[in-house]
Amino acid sequence: MLAVGIAPGWSPWSRIVRKQTRRQQIRIMVLVSTLHQGGGFYPNSSPFNQSQASPGGASGETKRSELSHSVRPLTLAQVIKAHQAHTDAEWTLEGNEVGQVTIIGHVVNVTEQTTNFLYTLEDGTGKVEARRWREQNSEEDADKWGDIQVNQVIRVTGHMKAFGNRKYVNAVNIRPSEDPHEIYFHTMEALTVSLSLHNGMPNGPPIGQKSPGNASAYAAQSSGMANDDMAEYRHLPHLQREIIRALLAQPEHDEGGVHVGVVAKAVQKEGVTGASISDALDALMDAGQIFTTSDDAHFQPAVSSGMAPSISDLLVTDDLTILLGLIAGTVFLLRTFYRPQPLVHPILLGRQSEVAKVRNPGESAVYRNYGTGLMNRFPLRPHKDVQVLTDLVRSDMEAPRTLWNTKITNAALQDRVASFGTGLLRLADLQSQESNVLLLLNDCIEFLIADLALSSHSIPSMTLAAANLLSPVLDTHPPSAIITHAEFLSTLLELIYDAGEEGRHHTIVVVGEPSSRVMASVASKVKVLLWTDVEREGFKVPKIMTPLPKPSDVFSVSFFADNTGHVQGTQITHTNLTAGVAAIHALFPVSALLSSLDTIVSSHSLGGTYGRAVAYAAIFEGTSFATTESSKLFRVDEGTVKQDVVDVLSAQLYSIPSATVLFLKPTHLDALVDAILREAKKSFLLNAFAWRHKISGISEGFVSRDTLWDRLVYDAARANVIGEGAGTVRAVIVGGGLLPANLLTPARVALSCPIINTLTHPAVVGPVFALHALDLQDFSTLEEDSAKSFAPVGPPTVSIEAKLLGVDDSAVEDGADPSGTLVVRGPPVTKQLSGEELETPSGYVNIRTGESVSSGNGDDEDGWTNLGVKIRVLTNGAFRVVV
């Protein structure tokens, strides 16, 4: 059973009243139409004549009043072209009345007068003046109109006026145009309005065009109605069919409906009365064939379910349809043309190593970096003018940089190096090529000054990769002098006294001011010099010049402990270090090379080969540089510094600019990423979408911190963890350990910058392998557990060639990836001390020795050095350490 609802206010009595009213209107319209056809009335007296201003009968006077209050955009050329018949007439342009106008122009002159301001505007089409009158109050005048200056672009709205033969715009509003696109918008808007007035609106007749015979705009056009369109109305009476035909013949865009008078006129003929027309309309409404629109005197035909829709019906749109279409088109364009593009072409990442064509049984082929090639020479230095260590301090760079807490230029650094070297030779009685000095210094500018000064005078330095190596090194390689910190002096004296070497002469240079208690405990044969006294001595006297060292000379020996805990030593030549600096320089793509604007923060101690290469890379590039708290090896207390976020941020204690490049260890990166992602998860809903979109971009080979999701989620998370340096970090280089594979992609999401994973070794100055900065592949597979595997370390660096030993030949022939023990050679690979040289003081290697070291140190007669790392070659030439 159907429930029929009755609209409020509707009743049979109201329907009877409406029917009687409609019958009276029909009778009147029929009478008017008859009189119009029979004569006696003026043509414009018909309420349905198209020459009227509107179907509602608005007069020309009303139209003129409306136009006078409208605002029309014009170019200055159109303002000049406009005219008026006489001084009281309306302004016209191309036959169309013009009310208020809005113009945009470039202010070329401002004339300030007693009662007004006169602005001369120019827009490329002409020059017009705009006048605005002063306010009584000067403050009110400034607040309302602003301070318009020459060379500004302004928009003026007002009325056109003429005085004499000069036209101007009497301004009612003036404002500066801040958006440069507003000029182009105004030009197109003026063009659109002019064309619409001349040609009519799109898909409509030209404005002002008359219908043939001055007929009504609603005149029935039954002659054009096809018989097929009336097929479904054949069952209706003749008069009702004619009413339907009259309604369907009206323009389809007329959504206000057809007036009852137009219907009466269309169906009027002999025998048809107003009452019969009203009855027919009521019958059609009751049958659902027609319905009223704006009022009871306007009708529209109902849409028939049995009639096939025409193409014009399907193409009818409204504002919502247009809006949805624009949104769909925008999404399609963004998806197609503005989707993130890979940072590097995938073809370049498909072959990262150059592979030799032959190999020996049980070995892999030789691999080199694809950029170096098999037949090219290895790069030995970052610049052609760099031959030895001191050349890394470039004289052509004059801008100061900050090293830890010291802001210094290269010229001042060179002066301090020369002064300290001279003072050390004079006060410590050191001899070039005969003495050696142990650097027991934590990372600081004094370490670099001492290292550079000793290398310039061919005095080898000795460094330690760990503090527990001090005692065995002092026993086997007693130095000619020791440079240490004041707070570590007492510990050093205890080691000397416990070793029973009070009777031997020792020279100790102390950085800082030792306490009087410690100085009182110094033995008679221990000579303690203050760093400031040594440097001051070098300033006072002429600098001592010694022969320049050769690139192949050994300038330092670095001691480290192997996996078994045994002490190992490696000799570092000038070529080793300059090649290591070149390898670090090559880590960065050409579009993002290191520059003097960067700030490097490193967690690697200068006592190791890799940490020293990073520091000298910063010196060469002119960047600011500092190290984290965990890089300090020599401490008075026995505690260790945890490698976490606090340690990464400890570099901010120095007066350096915000870090842009971080050289971190895997534990640092793990802690940093975990903290950032935990902060991001606080935005629960947004983080889910942000994570998904960032992962999608990385899978496409794209990573950036300028995305919408970074602004919404990750920028704030990074700022809460890193602080002021969150927006400046542009690259993170991971080394000094093995990075878990499942950490690589989250790190790229959290930091939104290139993560360069490297493989380092104490026997190699600089990185051995390094992931391409723009390579966002993770090489994860279903067969392996990413939580137990390590991230790829990339191809060999530009100065390294590598091969694998112990390779299963049958597995390789079956298509498996080569896997074996890594051996390398190249300019950054150092020569290790033999067992005898490590155990006896007399076994120290001469600094100019260029011969191969004897067996037992990991080197073979072909120059290959066994690093003791098991590694696998991936299909694209990158390497991955095997668990």
From TrEMBL:
The Replication protein A C-terminal domain is annotated at 209-296
Query: OB domain location, by residue?
Result: 101-173
The Swiss-Prot or TrEMBL record annotates one GO molecular function as: nucleic acid binding
| Organism domain of life | Eukaryota
Q: Which InterPro entries match?
A: AMP-dep_synth/lig_dom, ANL_N_sf, NA-bd_OB-fold, NA-bd_OB_tRNA, RPA_C, WH-like_DNA-bd_sf
Q: Name one GO cellular component term.
A: membrane
Q: Please list the residue ranges that the record marks as compositionally biased, kind Polar residues.
A: 43-54
* SUPFAM superfamilies according to UniProt: Acetyl-CoA synthetase-like, Nucleic acid-binding proteins
Pfam entry (one): RPA_C
All copies of domain AMP-dependent synthetase/ligase, residue ranges: 405-831
Give the region (Disordered) as residue ranges. 42-68
Family statement: Belongs to the replication factor A protein 2 family.
Quote the protein name from its UniProt record. Answer: Acetyl-synthetase
Q: Native species of this protein?
A: Lentinula edodes (Shiitake mushroom)
Which classification does the entry list for the species? Answer: Eukaryota, Fungi, Dikarya, Basidiomycota, Agaricomycotina
